[in-house]
Amino acid sequence: MIERVFSGVQPTGNLHLGNYLGAIRKFVDLQQKFDSCLYCVVDMHAITVWQDPAELTKNIREVTASFIASGVDPKKHIIFNQSQVSGHAELAWIFNCVARMGWLNRMTQFKEKAGKHKENASVGLYAYPVLMAADILLYRATHVPVGEDQKQHLELARDIAQKFNKDFAEPIAEAGFADGFFPQPDPLIAGTATRVMSLKDGSQKMSKSAASDLSRINLSDDAETIAKKIRKARTDPDGLPSEEKGLEGRAEARNLVNIYAALSDSTVEDVLKQYGGQQFSAFKPALSELAVAKMKPIGDEMNRLMDDPGHIDEILRDGAVRAREISQPVMKAVKGIVGFI
RNA sequence: AGGAAUGUAGCUUAGUGGUAAAGCAACGGACUCCAAACCCGUUGAUGAGGGUUCGAUUCCUUCCAUUCCUGCCA
After folding, report:
1. Architecture of domain A213-304
2. Has A205 been annotated as catalytic?
3. Where on strand B do bases come within 7 A of a protein Cβ?
4. Which residues touch strand B (CB under 7 A)?
5. How much is the ipTM here?
6. Which residue of A40, A41, A169, A255 lies most exposed, with the fewest beta carbons within 10 A?
7. Active-site residue, A208 included
């Protein structure tokens, strides 16, 4: 069975440094290691909470642009948006009938997102993890880069794959698949998990929904804005320690060092070796120079790409065609297995 | 499906038939190695439509949304 990576990013709102360091940038490394990578703009997941249609269109293009600007090769691998490949929806329905309500009731992310108003959440939000399982298994993907918060969803995908294999063991065997039809997708925990925290509160993840825009660095921020945000980032009264241990209990300081390490492709240890003992007034300008140097080319390239939406759409269309080539035989087999004519 | 209640700023709340108030949040300044806290300042709201009235955020009415209770279905 060939190894294949599937990863999705939701086109909702602003992309920020956390999205970049936590996900998008990793795609570039993965495309060296795996022959087949699918990078999917999951627009169908996005609408589990209401999206303004015009904004959604723009956001789909923006995420696509961020992939390309970050260095993903849309020729060698596949960049596409989910809704153009109907197999996602078709397989999700079949999986809806495989997955059990009890499994979904346990999903912590639904509980968090729906909050106290569970009755008011969309059915789609509830069924979200099933669609995600379909995304992965539609391509019989073997490796899925996931963050901590998505681990539970991946486990559900494994459960669904397993139950499908078991429920339809006989027709699967008849179709010539000896060890089950769907593989068990594995999580890809990429090296140092870069968790980028809010610049205003080191205990919160950097997020597009935080009240203050100063808490995040957007991919669309210009050099001046990036510098300002880093200058205003929260710290503490001490200087930088020379060893990692000195960052204990100093979430904000650690976050800035983490960001520096991630952007410079080095380690926290190396950064502290260089900046240990220095004041934030020295470190912050260095960090902001580094951030601008790394982020600005990406932002510029995104802007350039966004100026020609037709070109982006063409890339997505081409990706969708190739994604369909992989998924159609899978879908055809699945339909046969469950007994559809 | 029946009944009840609520709707004021991003959030939590006040209030009045005559310029809509506060706390938190946000933003700016000051302070600070840079920040935080404190201090100073700024932005920002009556769900939508209709009616009564000189004047409606307030009274009436319709709609919409939300919350609670009861029932029905699964």
Report:
1. Orthogonal Bundle (1.10)
2. yes
3. 10, 25-28, 33-36, 66-68
4. A 117, 119-120, 200, 211-214, 228, 231-239, 279-282, 284
5. 0.81
6. A169
7. yes
Q: Which residues contact A223 (CB under 8 A, 6 or more apart)?
A: A292, A296
Ramachandran bin of A320, using left for φ above 0, alpha for ψ from -120 to 50, beta for the remaining angles: alpha
The stretch A107-134 carries a mean pLDDT of: 78
Distance B28 C1' – A116 CA (angstroms): 36
CA dihedral for A187, A190, A191, A197, sign (positive or negative): negative
**Gap from A232 CA to B29 C1', in Å?**
14
Nearest residue for B37, CA–C1'? A236
Domain locations along chain A: 4-194+308-338, 213-304
Whether the CB-CB separation of A113 and A26 falls below 8 Å is answered with no
Residue A190 amino acid letter: A
Confidence of residue A191 (pLDDT cuts 50, 70, 90): low
The three state secondary structure string of A118-168 is HHHCCHHHHHHHHHHHHHHHCCCCCEEECCHHHHHHHHHHHHHHHHHHHHC
CA A192 to CA A68: how far, in whole Å?
23
CA distance A186 to A146: 10
The CATH class given to the A4-194+308-338 domain equals alpha beta
